[in-house]
Amino acid sequence: PLVLGIETSCDETGVGIVRGTELLANTIASSMDEHARFGGVVPEVAARAHLEALTPTIEQALETAGIALADVDAIAVTSGPGLAGALMVGVGAAKALAVALDKPFYAVNHLVGHVGADLLRDDEGDLELPTIALLVSGGHTSLLHVRSLTDDVELLGETIDDAAGEAFDKVARLLGLPYPGGPHIDRAAASGDPAAVRFPRGLTLPKDLEKHRYDFSFSGLKTAVARHVERMRDDGIEVPVADIAASFREAVADVLTKKAIAACVDLGVPRLLLGGGVVANARVRELAAERAAAAGVSLRIPPLSLCTDNGAMIAAIAAQRIMAGHGPSPLDVAADSTLPVTTVQV
Length: 346
Ligand code: ATP
Ligand code: MG
Ligand code: FE
Prior knowledge:
Blueprint: E1 2-7, E2 12-19, E3 22-30, H1 32-36, H2 43-65, E4 74-80, H3 84-101, E5 105-109, H4 110-116, E6 131-136, E7 141-148, E8 152-158, H5 164-174, H6 181-189, H7 206-212, H8 219-234, H9 241-267, E9 271-275, H10 282-295, E10 298-300, H11 304-307, H12 312-323
Parallel strand pairs: 1-4, 4-5, 6-9, 9-10
Antiparallel strand pairs: 1-2, 2-3, 6-7, 7-8
Helix pairs in contact: 2-3, 4-12, 5-6, 5-8, 5-9, 6-9, 9-10
Magnesium ion (MG) is lined by residues 10-12, 138, 277, 308-309.
Catalytic activity: L-threonylcarbamoyladenylate + adenosine(37) in tRNA = N(6)-L-threonylcarbamoyladenosine(37) in tRNA + AMP + H(+)
Organism: Microcella putealis
Family: Belongs to the KAE1 / TsaD family.
C-alpha cells in the first residue's frame, strides 16, 4: 500500500511516503533553530512551527515521491506520545486529509514508529522479530521487547527521570556548548580522556537492579557533572571540557549498552535494534557494536535520517497494519501525549 505518514510529536515536521517497506520520500522541516535560544524545545513554538511547515512539507514529499495526493491509499499520523499541542497539529491535519480524500486513517504510536523505521532501509537484510530495541532521543530512553510491529510490544524499562538526549543537552549547557548539545559533546569528547573522571552509572548497583534492571536514570549523572565543574571553577581550575565530555559520554554509553545487551541475553533474544537521535553518538555506536559482538547479538542501526523523528517510519507502521489486514483507526482518536508504547494499535 502507498501510505503518507505525518509526524509532529516534537520539533520535526516530518512527512514520509512509503509503498509497503519501500521508502519513496522522507521530508523533514525542523524548528530546532527557533528553540536554540531557549536551550530546549518550547512546546508552543513547536506547535506553531508545525502549522506553518506542514502544507509545504507534504507538497515537497509528494514531489519527491513523484505521486499525487489522490494516489495515496492511506493517511497515517503520530498520535502520541509527544508534545500535546504539536501532536494535535498533525492529528488534525491527517484526519482532515483522510476525510477530504476519503482514505483510511491510521493513528500510529511514535515509539513503535521508531522501531518500524528499520523496515525502510535498503542496505541490510530484513528486520527479524522478536528483537530488543533501545530508543534514545531527547524525549525518550526506552528498552523494548518487540514481538510484532502491529500488535505486540513490551516495555522492559525506561528512564525514571531525564532522557539520554536531554542529559546530553543539559551537560552541554553547563559546559558552555551550544544547543542541541549531543553533537557538540560528541565532538569535544573525541579528543578527551573517557577515564578522566569516573561519573556515576545510574541504576546499576545490585540494589537498583532488583527493581530497575532495565530502567535508566541520568539526572544523578548530570548533577555529578555539574558539581564537578562547579568545584573546578571555585578552585580556579580551567575546566577540561574534552575530558569531562568524554567521561560523561562514556558513562551514558556504558549504561545504555550494558542494559540493552543484558536484556538480549536475559530474554534469549540475540538481536538489538537502536533508534532515536542519540544513536548518532560515536561512543554509543562503538560500545554497542563491541558488546553486541561479544554477546553474540546482531546489532541493527538504521541510517540516521531514519533514526531521528520522521514521517516515513509512521507510514511504514501503517503499511504493516494494512498488510496484516488490520482496519483503520477511528476518526475520533485524539492526540495522546502520554500514549504508552504497549498501545500498538491506536
Ligand atoms: P523525541 O524524543 O520525541 O523523539 P527529539 O527531537 O528530542 O524528539 P531526536 O531528534 O531523535 O529526538 O534527537 C535529538 C536528541 O539527540 C537531542 O537531545 C540531541 O542532543 C541528541 N543527539 C544528537 N546527536 C547526538 C550525538 N552525537 N550524541 C549524543 N546525543 C545526540
Ligand atoms: Mg528532534
Ligand atoms: Fe522520536
